[in-house]
User: What shape does this take?
Amino acid sequence: MPPAIRHSTSASMRTGKILAICAAAWGAMTHQAAATEVPKRVVSMNLCTDQLAMMLAGQGQLHSVSYIAADPRASAMVEEARALRLNHGLAEEIYLMQPDLVIAGAFSTRATVAMLRRLGIPVVVFEPAYSLADVRDRILHMGDVLGRSAEAEAMVADFDLRLAALQQDVQTRPRAVLYYANGYTSGDQTLAGEILTVAGFDNAAADRGYGAGMKMPLEVLAVTNPDAVITSQPYPGASRSEEVLAHPVVRNLRAVKGAASITDHDWICGTPFVLRAIERLAQDRETLSGGAE
Amino acid sequence: MRVFAGLSALVACLFVASLLIGPAGIGPGESLAALVAGDRGPLTLVMREIRLPRAILAVMIGGSLGLAGAAMQGYLRNPLAEPGLIGVSGSAALGAVLAIHTGAAVAFALALPMAALVGAGLGVLIVMALAGPRGTSLTLILAGVAVSALAAALTSLVLNLSPNPFAANEIIFWMMGSLADRSMTHVWLALPFMAVGWLLLSRLGRGLDALTLGEDAAQALGIRLTHLRLGLVGGVTCVVGAGTAVAGAIGFVGLVVPHILRPVVGAHPSQLLWASALGGAAMVLTADIAVRMILPERDLKLGVVTAIIGAPLFLHLILKLRQERI
Assistant: This one.
C-alpha cells in the first residue's frame, strides 16, 4: 500500500482509497517506481481537482491544470492557474506532458481517462462534492494523493472552525430558490442547496420536491413565490438558455423582494471557497430580513 | 363558410386550453380570473407573462407557417414547397443566431427579427432562383436541401464558436423550435413584421387562383406575375423570419396543414390560404399543448411533435405521387 494513503474514516474515503490503489496498481504494472513515491509531476484535468491541487500541492509538484481553472467565471484561483501550464483534457496533450499522476473528475471524459490508463499513466478519479461533508473528504483525499496529508489536515481543521463560526440560529428563514440557465434548480443533497441552508435560507425548491439538477418550470417558480431568487452569473455572448433569467417573471420576483444574489465561482466546487459563498449569502439574507422589518 | 367557422372554433378552443394547461396546476376558473382581474399576485404573473404570450405566439406562428406553406405551394404549384423543408426557416434561424451571438440583439431589440428576416429573405430568394419559377419537385427539393444544410451548418458553427457555454446546446432549439418561457416582449417583437407578412400573403389569393390555369392564362386574366412573386417572397420572408426569430424553426406545419385542408376547401388556392392559416394555428397550439402534457419536465421541442405528425404524412404524399405517376 502506498504510504500516502492513511485515512479510512468514511465510506467515500474507502472508495477513494480503492481508486487510489487501482491507480497505484496500474502504475506498478507499467511505471515500476512511480506508484510508491510521492508524485512529482501531477496533471489535473478537472476544475474542482485543479483548485484543490493548487491549494495543497508542494512547490513545483503540480505541472498543469485545466484551462477552465483560468476562467474567472468558473474558477476562484485564476492567478494561480495562469502560472501553470493549461491543458484541455485531451489524452494526447496530457500524455506528452509525461505526468506521473493524473487527477480527473468523475465527469471527465471516460474515453480520455481510459486512454491515459492504457498508456500506463496512473489516474485518480475524484467524485464531485455533494455536501459540505464531502468537501472535507475531498480535501483529505487530495492530501493523500499528493502526499501532503499534514497540509490537508490543517486545511480541514481551519475549514471546520470557519464553518462552525458560520452556523447560527436564524429566527425567520427566508424562502429562496436557486435558478440557473434553462430553468434548472438545485434541491437538497447538492452543494449549492447546502450552502443555501447553512446561510440561513429555506430551499423552497427542495420543499416542492425538486432534487439535484432538475428543471423547475417558470410557472412553478412564479407560484412558489420565493423571498429570494438566486441566479447564476450570465456568461458573455448572449444565449437563449440564460434568457429565462431575464424573463419578466424572474425580474419581477427579484425586483419586489430586493435581494438579488448571484452564484459565482465560489459555489461550483467543493473547496474551502464555499465558506466565502456562505458568508456573502448570509449577508444578503440579513439585508433581506432588515428590509422586511 | 362552414369550414371557416369550424376551424375558428377549433382554434378558439385550443387557445383557451393552452391558457389553462401548465405545470403550475391552477384550477381553470382561478386561472381565468387571475388573467382578467390582475391583482399582480403570482397567479396573474403566470397567466399574463407566461401562458398568454405562449398561446398568442402559437397562434401567430402556426398561422404564419400555414399561410406561408399554402402560398408557396400555390405559387410553385408544388405540394412539397414549405418554409421548413426548403430551408427558409433554417436560414432565418441563422440570421437570428447571428444577431444574438454578435450582441446586436442586446444593443438593439429589433435587430433580432430583422436579422432573421434577412436570413429568411436570402433563403427564399436562393431557393426560388435555383428552382426556377416552374421548378420541378426535384430541383426545388435539391435547392432546399442545399440551403437548409448550409444554414444548419453555419448556425451550428456560430453556436459552437460562442464564448457562452450554453450556446452549443441551443442548436436543438434553433433546429426544432420551442415556445417555452417566451414573454410578451417576444409577441411585440414579432407582431409588426408578421402583420406586414399576413397582409402581403392575403392579397395573393386571386393571383394564385388564376395561376392554377397556367402562367399564360393568368397573365391573360390580368395577373402580373412579377407582382405576385414579389408579394410571395416578401410575405414569406416577413412571417417566417419573425416567427423563427422568437421560436426557432418549426418544421412540417406548412407542409401538412395545406395538404390536409386542400380536399376540404376544394382546390382553390385563395380559400386554402386562410384555411391553412387557421389550420396551422390549430396544429402549433396542439403541438405546444402536447409538449406540456407528454413530458412537462423535459422541454420537448415543438419540431419533434410536428415532425412526428408530419413525417408520416410526407411519406403518404410520396406514395400518392408515385401511384399517380404509374
Remarks:
- Chain B is about 75% helix and 0% strand.
- Chain B has a mean pLDDT of 89.
